[in-house]
Amino acid sequence: MRNFSIAGLTELMSSSTAAAERVVVERTQLGEHVVTTPVQRRWPELADQDYGTLDTAIEVTGPVDFPALRAALTSVIERHSGLRTSFPKIDGVWTQRLGRGQDVGWVDLADASEHEASSRVEALLSAEAHHQFDLSSEAPFRVTLVRCDPERGLIVFHGHHVVFDGWSSSVFMRDTQDLYSGRSLRPPFEYGHYALALEAFESTNVAATIRRSWQRHFDGAPAPTRMPPDRDGASSSDHGDRVDFDVPPDVWAAIQRAAEARQVTPFAVLMAAFGRLVRDETGDDDIVVGTTTAGRTTPETEEIVGVFVNPLPVRLPRTRLEGADDIDEADAALTHFHDAQPPALEDLVRTVPPFVGLGLNDACHCYLLFQSYWRRDPAGWALASRQVTMPSTSQHRLMREFEIVLEPRPDRLAGEVW
Question: Which long-range contacts (CB under 8 A, 24 or more apart) does 74-80 make?
């Protein structure tokens, strides 16, 4: 059980009270132009730095009715207007412009030799991975369907984070499978509905209370923590690479047991370990790192395709809670992080020291991402599907200096270090 100080308890109560009053998303008639959300606006601001593109391929096995699958993909893009949105700057303000989505591409390799088919697929994946969207004039989301043979195909996605996130991929594939199977779907809430609701919410007293809770949380905090360079004369380049690893099943099981025993989430245990790593490397006790929340704070947002994922700083001060250990500190910080939603980096760099005046990429240098977003169980799907490893480019643009990405799998915890 956490032993809060009076100040910590007051902060938790105030942010939780605010969290009880959420953004109210309602269906309204959307015009051609809609206001953007703060988490959207960060992406056009970073576009000239070549951040945000998303590429993946899904292998489907059948037998596959390719015309029906292409029609289902087209219908999903039509169904979710966020996938048909470009982002012009009008009078100095980034704006959503709802329009026509990009056609679903079609490549038929059924009659090609194995070597030719492999070469053409590799060329397609490489071309998509290297294409950079003009966010101001084109909807940054396109899909190509490839028929490899009558019972196997690839759905190739090339998109941008400004319209899509991990949770969105689950919604997109669920809707594709349902429409392919002939199921009827109710009209969804649109991302534009959420953007309008969030705009109204940001001027409320509740939003002001949330902002004050972030200011209290970071009162007296140091600048965002940086890991020391691993060698003298380290490069100042923002390109790097990644190392993949797996947390062994017995270690992952032990982490889950520890979380259950402490009545916290596994992420709190992982964040405590991450905080210990950063403290050991830096020698600092009061550290400011970063992580991500799914950002979907209401039931309506769970059905919307769009960008909600919200990167924010987390303060881990070793002595802030009386009698607390690392797990208590991490759990308290993450409780505030999730209860005091929905701020964005755009707001923090304007109003919350020590982030005031920093760039959007400078609020977090050390980052832990736990990808535990909702995924639909594929049991009963008309098509078997699995994600295909995409070809990587020779260099990766780093948004942060040090990042660990963790993703639960059925038998282990998979990880990447960037």
Answer: 74/103, 74/104, 75/179, 76/172, 76/175, 76/176, 76/179, 77/101, 77/102, 77/104, 77/141, 77/143, 79/175, 79/185, 79/188, 80/171, 80/172, 80/175, 80/188, 80/190, 80/191, 80/304, 80/305, 80/306
Q: What amino acid occupies position 41?
A: R
Residues 305 and 363 in one domain: yes
Alpha carbon distance 394, 94 (integer Å)? 32
Number of neighbouring beta carbons within 10 Å of residue 311: 21
262 pLDDT higher than 90: yes
For the cut 70, the answer to whether the pLDDT of residue 395 exceeds it is no
pLDDT at 272 exceeding the cut of 90: yes
Report the CATH number that the domain containing residue 37 is assigned in CATH.
3.30.559.10
Strands 413-417 and 93-98: unpaired
Give the type of residue at 151: E
- Could you tell me the residue range of the domain that residue 319 belongs to? 6-23+210-375+393-417
Residue 387, domain member (yes or no):
no
**Residue 40 in domain:** yes
Q: Report whether 413 contacts 247 (CB < 8 A).
A: yes
Spatial distance between the Cα atoms of 344 and 339, rounded to a whole number of angstroms: 14
Q: Tokens for 236?
A: 């100042």
Residue whose tokens read 């030719």: 116
Tokens linked to 22: 């959420």
Flag whether 205 is in a domain. Answer: no
Reply yes or no on whether the pLDDT at 104 is more than 90.
yes
The top-scoring range by mean pLDDT among 9-23, 54-68, 265-279 is 265-279
Q: Which residue reads 């703060």 in tokens?
A: 38
Q: Within a domain: residue 199? A: no
pTM for this prediction: 0.86
Q: Per DSSP, what are the bridge partners of residue 368?
A: 404
63: cis peptide before it, omega within 30°? Answer: yes
Average pLDDT of the chain? 86
Q: Contact 226/365 with Cβ under 8 angstroms? A: yes
* Helical (H) or strand (E) element with 313: strand 310-317
Q: 80 and 185: one domain? A: yes
Give the 3-state secondary structure of residue 365: coil
